[in-house]
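Handout, section B. The chain below has 297 residues.
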Amino acid sequence: MDPPDVTAFTSESRSRQSSISLQRQESTLNKSIGMETHSSEHTLLSLQNRKRLSRGLSEDDPSRITVHQVLEDRFAPPFSLEDFQNFLKAEHSEENIKFYLALRKYERICSHIPVQLLQSADEVPSDLATRHDFSAAKACISSILEKFFTPGAEDELNVPANLVRDMLRNIKETNNIQPEVFKRIMENVLTMLRLSSFPNFCKLALTEGDCKPKVTVDQVLEDQLPHPMSFSDFHQFLIRERSEEKIEFYLAIKLLRATCENVPKEVLMKSSQQPPDSDYGETIKTAKIWRLRMAVI
């Protein structure tokens, strides 16, 4: 399910990630473990993309900062998510950000569960893994309802009564526990954060320092940053530290997942029983090769 109005601003970031070539990453890993390839390309992103990202890192105009970016923790202190949480706590209005984080957690749990089970939570999944996720989802939504929608609760949300009434009716009468049942409430919470608390937070943060993008290990591993923080720079650093096996294992896992992405789970669980000429024969063969390479790392 797409989170309500929360991830629209990440489209550019996701498009950058999708441009990363698995073939080039395979070349990097092959060279690291002594398996040469004929690829002559060395970097994972084009020079044009790197220049654009480099320019982006210098664009720290506070007027361009959005509440969504801070909620996604994209900036270093004093504009980080933790800073915003502490500001709201001092304002005695942290229930809004607590609800946001709780719903994001719930969305992650529900992403592993078939939609039809969430639309009508009466059925018990037969699959053990799905049953575990389903139980976690029901426990999580119960916690959300108790914490944020119980009258008089410490973190009770201050949202219009009709939104709460519609949400509770949807859950109790139809047994629909999809994260979408909270969509209108989330929109209301984000509006309150954006118009009320966020402007004051930015004013305070500006007195403490500049707004700079946060550098994370995920950005480096996805090669989203220019030199000297690129994937290649990090790889060379780990080689000098004699701990490059960590990044090589990460690449191997990523390539194994990409190889198996379109193969049904039940086929992978019984891969030894699949004949070479089956629909997934070649894919399973490639996946087994990557599994052997991981054993070498």
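Note. The CA atoms of residues 11 and 33 lie 35 Å apart. Compare this with the example in section A.
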